[in-house]
Design brief:
The structure is a single chain. The protein is of the alpha/beta class and about 325 residues long. About 30% of the residues lie in helices and about 25% in strands. The chain has eleven helices and twelve strands. The strands form two sheets. An eight-stranded mixed sheet has the order 6-7-8-3-9-10-12-11, with helices on both faces. It has a four-stranded antiparallel sheet with strand order 2-1-4-5. Helix 7 packs parallel to helix 8. The longest helix has 18 residues.
Length: about 325
């Protein structure tokens, strides 16, 4: 049984009085212990998907138009803000991509982590201190008692990211959404953070939705992959199947663009063109104008989900047997 089921979710943004879909009729599920990697270029709708699940979209600008987000038998799109506040942090938590803006610069690390515990747990002052100390030790932060008293501006980017992870895991949530958790970090620190995240979530039994541009991170971390393009999930499969047998021309282009596939006699491979703006009207497949394999039907009709096998689906007319 799935821990999280997203069914036909569509999320719109208001742009100069008109509604445009940033997430367009997507469906996916997440089971216990799974790590779902969501990949795609900037503007594909990855972060909007995460914010839709958490219901953290700006109310004045964005709206979930249709679909359901089922978590433990509850549809999160139907819950009131008070009910959602109980779920956020305790059952589903999020690691934002920029820790410096996610943390309050004038509040100590201890106070910021304590706030999460006070919201969801009834603990004494001493118990809270011990919980914070324990989670910082799990994240391999030396001298946690001294570290707690520091402010965000006194700490390096790698350590700040550990604080954000500490806030996300301290209540042992069922699901952790990691939105580009290593973007602002150097390569060595990235590897450390990812290893810690994998190790700790396995220890506390959390499932992860990992949003990233980095296919290397997906190959290292994810058990399942969903490829997004202009608001749609255009391919979904196991991680192993995705890298061994990608089907969508866009997926193939992303893999071909990886640095490991660089040929020293040529330039790095890149997919031609850019992701169309939300305001551009497209009748058929959104990737049609960038695709080397496009056919006449691609420009007039949106492809539907085609099953490659039990765990692999793709939205592409190339695989329609008719």
């Amino acid at each position: 049984m799935s821990l999280l089921e997203v069914n036909n979710l569509s999320t719109s943004f208001d742009i100069e009085g008109e509604k445009f879909l940033a997430v367009n009729d997507i469906s996916f599920n997440l089971k216990d212990g799974e790590i779902l990697g969501i990949i795609g270029e900037s503007g594909s709708g990855k972060s909007v998907t995460a914010l839709s699940v958490m219901n953290l979209l700006p109310k004045y600008k964005a709206k979930i138009e249709s679909g359901s987000i089922m978590f433990k038998g509850k549809d999160l799109t139907k819950l009131k803000e008070k009910e959602l506040c109980k779920i956020r942090g305790e059952d589903i938590s999020i690691i934002f991509q920029e820790p410096m803006t996610a943390l309050n610069p004038i509040v100590t690390i201890e106070e910021q982590i304590r706030e999460v515990l006070l919201t969801h747990r009834s603990l004494s002052k001493n118990e809270i201190f011990n919980e914070i100390r324990e989670v910082l030790l799990k994240l391999r932060i030396p001298n946690p008692e001294e570290f707690m008293k520091k402010y965000p501006f006194e700490i390096s980017g790698g350590m700040l990211q550990r604080v954000v992870i500490a806030m996300a895991i301290i209540c042992k949530p069922s699901i952790i959404i990691a939105d580009e958790p290593t973007t602002a970090l150097d390569v060595t620190t990235q590897a450390e953070i990812l290893n810690l995240l994998k190790e700790i979530t396995k220890d506390i039994g959390s499932s992860i939705i990992l949003i990233t541009h980095d296919l290397g991170v997906i190959a290292e971390m994810a058990t399942k992959v969903a490829v997004m393009y202009r608001g749609r999930i255009i391919e979904e499969s196991s991680s192993l199947e995705f890298f061994d047998n990608p089907k969508h021309p866009y997926s193939k282009g992303l893999i071909k663009s990886m640095p490991k596939n660089y040929n020293c006699s040529n330039r790095f491979y890149s997919i031609k063109g850019t992701v169309p703006y939300l305001t551009e009207e497209i009748n058929g497949c959104e990737f049609c104008n960038r695709c080397d394999k496009s056919m006449k039907i691609c420009s007039v009709k949106v492809p539907f989900d085609i099953k490659v096998n039990e765990d692999h689906r793709v939205k592409c007319w190339l695989y329609d047997k008719r």
